[in-house]
Design brief:
Number of helices: 22
Largest sheet: 5 strands, antiparallel
Shape: globular
Structural class: alpha+beta
Helix content: 55-70%
Strand content: 5-15%
Radius of gyration: 23 Å
C-alpha cells in the first residue's frame, strides 16, 4: 500500500496495465479467431487472419499513441525499422510516425499561457488550435507572428515529464539484466547515457540550442534546411521555429525514384558530415522528422542530439573505415578492444569481428552503385540486433561503449529510412569523400564543395 502511494511507481503500473489490456484484447481476438476458423475454408481463414492482424495492430497503435512517452517511441522505431513484420501491423504502427492522438485545444493553450504569459491568440497574430503534427512528447501548431512570419510552435504535453520518468524507471532494471547477457558491459554507464539523452528531450531549451547549432552549421546549404529558432518565443515547454512547407515522408514515397535517390543522398550526407565536421548527430532519424522540397530536405526535431569528443569521432569513423571502406580485420579488432566493444585479450577471431562490424555498412563496402531496399535493410538490422548462432559468441566478450549507444540508433534508423526510399548511390565513394577527404563523386558533392568554399572565404 505504501509503494502504491509512490507517484512514479503508480504511473508506471498504470502504463503497464494499459499494455496488458492491449495484450489481453489480442488474446481474446485470437481465441475468437480459432473458433471461427475451425470450419472455414482456406480463403476464409486467410481473410479472418488478416482481419485479426489489422484489428490487433490498430489496437496497439491506439494504445501506444495515447500513452505517448517512451512506449510510443518504441512503436515508432519498430514501425519503420523492421520491414519484415506483417504489413497490416506495420501500416497501423506507421500512424505513429507522423501523428499521434493530440491533446485538446484547451490543454495546448494552457501550456502556452503558462510558458509565454498569455493565451495563444494574444501571443500570436494568428493561432491554429488544430495541430499539424503530434508525436511522443509534444505536438506542433501553425501560427503567425505580428511581423507576418509563419512559425511552427511545438507544445509539450502536460505531465509528459512524469510519464517519461516513469518509463525510464525501467532502465534501472536493465542494470540487473544486462550483465547476465554482456558480462563485461558497464550497465550503469549505458543506462545512465540513455536516461540523460532521453531526459534532455523534455527540455526544449536544450533542443533549441541544438537546433541553433545545426542551423548555423548548415546555413545556406544547397540541399539541407534547418528551421531557425525564434528565441523570444521558446521556453522549456514551448519551441517556436520558422515554418517550412514540405512533403511528409509517406507522401514523398510515391515520388519518382530519381527524387528519392536525391533525398537519400542528402540525408546520408547530413548524418556523415555532422559526425565528421561537428562531432554531433541527431539521434532520432524516424520518418516524421523530414520534410521534402523540390530538391532539398528539411530536418526537424533536435531533441535527441549526441555530442562527442574529437577522439570519439575519430574512433567512430575509423571503425567504419576498417570494417567496410578499407577492411583490416586485425586493426579493427584492436580498435574495438581499445574503445570497449570487446574485452582486451578476447579469443574472438578478428575476421568474425570484421564480418559483424561490417553488417550495417555493407552498402558502402564496394565501389559501385548500391540500392538499399527495405527488405535488405530489415534483414541487416535484424541480424545485427539478434545476432543468431553465427554471431552470438560475440556477446560473451562484448561491451557497449557509452558513445555508441545513441550512434547505433541513428545507424539503424538511417538504414531503415534509406531502405524506405529504395535509395541508390555509390555510398562507398560518398563515405570516402566525407570521412577520408577525397574528391566529390556526385553533383550533390560538387555543390557541397562550392558551399564549403564560400563559407571559408
Amino acid at each position: 500500500m505504501v509503494l502504491w502511494r509512490a507517484p512514479r511507481l503508480r504511473r508506471l503500473l498504470r502504463r503497464y496495465l494499459l499494455i496488458a489490456g492491449a495484450g489481453s484484447r489480442t488474446a481474446g481476438r485470437r481465441a475468437t479467431l480459432a473458433v471461427r476458423t475451425v470450419t472455414a475454408d482456406a480463403d476464409k481463414r486467410a481473410a479472418l487472419d488478416a482481419e485479426f492482424q489489422l484489428q490487433s495492430a490498430e489496437d496497439v497503435a491506439r494504445t501506444l499513441g495515447a500513452m505517448k512517452g517512451a512506449f510510443m517511441k518504441v512503436g515508432q522505431l519498430a514501425s519503420f525499422v523492421d520491414d519484415g513484420m506483417p504489413e497490416p501491423i506495420r501500416a497501423a504502427l506507421a500512424q505513429l510516425q507522423d501523428d499521434a492522438p493530440p491533446m485538446t485545444a484547451a490543454l495546448a493553450a494552457s501550456v502556452i499561457r503558462a510558458e509565454l504569459g498569455a493565451d495563444p491568440e494574444r501571443v500570436f497574430r494568428r493561432w491554429d488550435p488544430v495541430p499539424i503534427a503530434a508525436a511522443s512528447i509534444g505536438q506542433v501548431h501553425r501560427a503567425v507572428l505580428d511581423d507576418g512570419r509563419t512559425v511552427a510552435v511545438k507544445v509539450q504535453y502536460p505531465d509528459i515529464a512524469e510519464i517519461v520518468a516513469a518509463d525510464l524507471a525501467q532502465l534501472d532494471m536493465g542494470r540487473l539484466v544486462l550483465p547476465a547477457i554482456y558480462p563485461d558491459m558497464d550497465a550503469r554507464a549505458v543506462t545512465t547515457e540513455l536516461r540523460e539523452r532521453l531526459t534532455e528531450e523534455l527540455d526544449y531549451r536544450i533542443e533549441a540550442g541544438n537546433q541553433r547549432d545545426f542551423a548555423r552549421w548548415y546555413r545556406d546549404h544547397p540541399f539541407i534546411r534547418i528551421p531557425e529558432v525564434i528565441d523570444e518565443l521558446s521556453t522549456r515547454r514551448v519551441l517556436t521555429t520558422a515554418f517550412v512547407e514540405g512533403t511528409r515522408f509517406a507522401a514523398f514515397e510515391s515520388r519518382d525514384q530519381a527524387a528519392r535517390d536525391h533525398a537519400g543522398e542528402v540525408i546520408f550526407r547530413f548524418v556523415l558530415r555532422s559526425i565528421a565536421d561537428h562531432c554531433a548527430f541527431n539521434g532520432d532519424p524516424h520518418p516524421g522528422n523530414y520534410l521534402f522540397g523540390t530538391d532539398d530536405v528539411t530536418f526537424v526535431d533536435f531533441g535527441l542530439v549526441k555530442r562527442f569528443s574529437a577522439q570519439s569521432r575519430d574512433d567512430t569513423i575509423a571503425s567504419v573505415v576498417l570494417a567496410a571502406i578499407e577492411p583490416n580485420a586485425p586493426a579493427l579488432a584492436a580498435l574495438c578492444e581499445r574503445v570497449g566493444y570487446f574485452t582486451p585479450g578476447n579469443p574472438l577471431p578478428p575476421e568474425l569481428i570484421l564480418e559483424f562490424s561490417a553488417l550495417l555498412w555493407g552498402h558502402a563496402a564496394e565501389d559501385r552503385p548500391f540500392t538499399i531496399t527495405s527488405a535488405w535493410a530489415s534483414d541487416v538490422v535484424r541480424t545485427f540486433m539478434l545476432k543468431g548462432d553465427r554471431y552470438r559468441v560475440l556477446d560473451r566478450y562484448g561491451g557497449l561503449p557509452v558513445d555508441s549507444v545513441i550512434l547505433q540508433r541513428i545507424t539503424v534508423g538511417l538504414l531503415a529510412v534509406l531502405g524506405r526510399l529504395n535509395a541508390t548511390a555509390n555510398w562507398h565513394r560518398i563515405t570516402r569523400e566525407l570521412w577520408l577527404g577525397e574528391e566529390p563523386s556526385t553533383p550533390i558533392g560538387e555543390a557541397e564543395a562550392v558551399w564549403l568554399a564560400s563559407r571559408v572565404a
